[in-house]
Amino acid sequence: MTAKRELIEPTPGDKRYVRRDGEGRFKEVEDVGRSLAQDQKRKAKNDAKPGQGDRGDRKK
Prior knowledge:
The protein is an alpha+beta fold. 17% of the residues lie in helices and 32% in strands. It is built from one helix and three strands; from the N terminus they run E-E-E-H.
């Protein structure tokens, strides 16, 4: 099972989605603005579970 992504804001105005490994270290880091922009450009082929929105479409 993959870890849920969480939203962090290391400095004001700089939001990022991160995933952590089993030891709590950052495994993946993605800028929020870039992530949302890429989501709008592409139609995902898979449904995603809660907390995994970057890995497919979310059900509404």
